[in-house]
Design goal:
The protein is α+β, with helices and mostly antiparallel strands. It has a domain of 199 residues: Immunoglobulin-like (Sandwich). The protein is built from three helices and 13 strands. A hairpin with a 5-residue loop joins strand 9 and strand 10. The longest helix has 36 residues. The chain starts with a helix and ends in a 13-residue tail after the last strand.
Length: 351
């Protein structure tokens, strides 16, 4: 058994030695063969010995990254109709630098869209036409008749009658009635309606019957049934029930441009002062004089005695201060008279 064991060990050792020699031989052959192949056959391990007949491997150039050019805000020229800061134009205009802004105006596009180089472009900004504002055709009113008294018994109110000298719109016209104390002023805004030349308009300064007393704002002049209304004239009503017109006072019409178109000055005591309010009345009278709307009989600045003398009215509701119709308007007291009792004519020609 001992001999068999020793023999087995020796046999195993011999086999191991043979295997090691075989591995070493194989390694040498591979290495030697690699040396032989290195003599001009391996282009990778011997780059200097590359055969000229072999095709060259192209050189791979990495792509060049170009940073985008950032145009400062002041270079961007805004246009009409752009949003969010966007502009229109070609690429050359977008790449212009600040130095390009110093070029002369001759290098820019002309009104016809032609540049200096002869290149034409369509107009980017359309021409904006200036809107034409229509001139308002304003009516011309003339104060024609006034009643300064009223009566609760007969529901008779004070009124101011106007005659339309030139037809048009009453929009923007204002009536001013200066009270006898020269400090309180009633202002009436005329309604925005069209009137015709020759038409009569009566502004009733009180309203006693609200159901019948209504403004005639359209062509139908018969709808108002209040006292002293006229079926052939336009009737307008002030809804208050207070005193708005006195025998001593100033009445004038002014348009939207603050231009006075007509006026009349009344004075119950024309040979005295302006009813104890000399300063205020004198200032208003001077304004009317400067506007060419009231003067003395001789054409000079009016005094208290140059107002229409209303002392003859007394307290009668049957008398009125009326204009001489058909005469030239001299803008003075000689254009006016006090009617005989019962000859007041609201909405009709004066008698």
């Amino acid at each position: 058994m001992k001999h068999i064991f020793l023999f087995s060990v020796m046999l195993f050792s011999l086999l191991v030695v043979c295997n090691c020699k075989h591995d070493l031989g194989t390694s040498r052959v591979t290495e030697s063969q690699g040396d032989e192949d290195g003599k001009g056959k391996n282009p990778v391990n011997n780059p200097e010995q590359i055969d000229n007949n072999e095709p060259e491997v192209p050189e791979i150039i990495p792509p060049k990254v170009i940073e985008p050019e950032i145009i400062p805000p002041e270079v961007i020229q805004p246009e009409n109709g752009t949003q969010g800061g966007e502009t229109k134009g070609n690429e050359d205009e977008e790449n212009e630098t600040q130095e390009g802004e110093d070029e002369e105006d001759d290098d820019e596009e002309t009104e016809e869209g032609e540049t200096e180089g002869g290149e034409t472009h369509e107009e980017e900004t359309p021409e904006i036409e200036t809107p034409i504002t229509e001139t308002l055709d304003t009516a011309l009113l003339q104060i024609n008749e006034l009643r300064t008294e009223y009566s609760l018994n007969t529901n008779s109110a004070e009124y101011i009658e106007f005659k339309v000298i030139k037809g048009g719109s009453m929009e923007g016209l204002y009536l001013y009635s200066v009270m006898n104390n020269a400090q309180d002023i009633f202002v009436y805004i005329f309604p925005e309606i069209d009137v015709e030349a020759g038409e009569y308009i009566t502004l009733h300064l009180r309203t006693f019957d609200r159901l019948k007393s209504c403004d005639e704002l359209r062509d139908d002049l018969t709808i108002s049934g209040g006292y002293d209304s006229c079926s052939t004239a336009r009737d307008l009503w002030v809804t208050e029930n207070v005193k708005l017109l006195y025998k001593t006072g100033i009445v004038y019409i002014q348009n939207a441009d603050s231009k006075i178109m007509d006026a009349v000055i009344l004075n119950e005591k024309p040979f005295g002062t302006w009813n104890g309010n000399q300063t205020q009345y004198a200032q208003i009278a001077e304004r009317l004089f400067n506007a060419g709307m009231w003067q003395a009989a001789d054409g000079l600045k009016p005094a208290p005695s140059d107002a229409v003398n209303t002392s003859g009215v007394d307290t009668s509701i049957y008398k009125s201060v009326s204009r001489y119709e058909g005469r030239e308007n001299t803008h003075s007291a000689k254009d006016w008279y006090i009617t005989v009792a019962g000859f007041y004519t609201p909405g009709l020609p004066n008698k």
